[in-house]
Prior knowledge:
The protein has helices at residues 8-37, 66-69, 74-91, 104-126, 137-149, and strands at 42-48, 51-57, 98-101, 130-134, 153-157, 164-168. By secondary structure, it is α+β, with helices and mostly antiparallel strands. It has 2 domains: 8-102, 2-Layer Sandwich (GMP Synthetase, Chain A, domain 3), CATH 3.30.300.20; 107-168, Ribosomal Protein S8, Chain: A, domain 1, CATH 3.30.1370.50. It has a 3-stranded mixed sheet with strand order 1-2-3, with helices on both faces. Strands 4-6-5 form a 3-stranded antiparallel sheet. Strand 5 and strand 6 form a beta hairpin. Mean pLDDT is 90; it is low at 1-10. It comes from Streptomyces virginiae (Streptomyces cinnamonensis). GO terms for molecular function: DNA binding.
Amino acid sequence: MTEGTTTAAAESGDTLTRLEQEGEIAADYLEGLLDIADLDGDIDMDVEADRAAVSIVSDSASRDLQKLVGRDGEVLEALQELTRLAVHRETGDRSRLMLDIAGFRAKKREELAALGAKAAEDVKASGEPLKLAPMTPFERKVVHDAVAAAGLRSESEGEEPQRFVVVLPA
Length: 170
């Protein structure tokens, strides 16, 4: 490879390395948080859909990690932003890292995918656009993906925090 040229494979490898680095930084940050809070949990790291994915899981059936999820994932969202800031501080790059705690986000993803599929079915049957309740950016993304998988289009409307998905007929 000559200077100034790159291959897609090299770029892909660099991206993976960068995302793995983000995951490592996030894991260190979250381990420190767990220690300070005196909570038990293991950190799992992965790369999904061009973003680092970090999960805090626990073998115990205790509700300790639920404290880090909060009502409707509010604490989880805040911890995700703090973790992204910790990664940004170390790398200088904006992070799109996704954090899950105690499987909350995975379960929510399943529920939202089902909601998006059902909304798409309803729109196909009625032929009319359907507005859904306001959602977080993560929630809207999952619904948009489910609607697209069902063969329809959707778009987001409104202003945060009242931004919502509209499912459109074909």
